[in-house]
Specification:
The structure is a single chain. A two-stranded antiparallel ribbon has the order 1-2. By secondary structure, it is α+β, with helices and mostly antiparallel strands. Helix 1 packs across helix 3. A hairpin with a 2-residue loop joins strand 1 and strand 2. The protein contains 4 helices and 2 strands, in the order ββαααα.
């Protein structure tokens, strides 16, 4: 069997009964080991989680509100959308 692509995704608990699912798909090039490609995807998904968590915490600190207050005020979703846009800008970094 020839494996042409692999996918890795994971759901992370972000607190306040919320979760964030991050997933990536990669094509397996000729001569590549699919398990090694999958391991690289795993590492990148966790790096993305760390970046999102860092951006979320930084946004909370800048707003001088606790995470619970931000959720109550409805800013939580906007913060995550801003972080997602930031990660989309970094997409070229993860394509290597």
């Amino acid at each position: 069997m020839k494996i042409k692509q692999v996918e890795y995704s994971k759901t992370f608990n972000i607190g306040n009964y919320e979760s964030l699912r991050i997933g990536l798909v990669a094509e397996v090039e000729q001569g590549e080991n699919e398990r090694e490609v999958l391991q690289r995807l795993n590492e990148r998904v966790h790096a993305l989680r760390d970046t999102l968590s860092s951006q979320y915490k930084k946004a909370c600190q800048m707003a001088q509100y606790s995470q619970a207050d931000i959720k109550k005020l409805g800013y939580s979703k906007e913060t995550w959308l801003a972080a997602k846009a930031y990660l989309n800008d970094l997409e070229s970094v993860f394509e290597s």
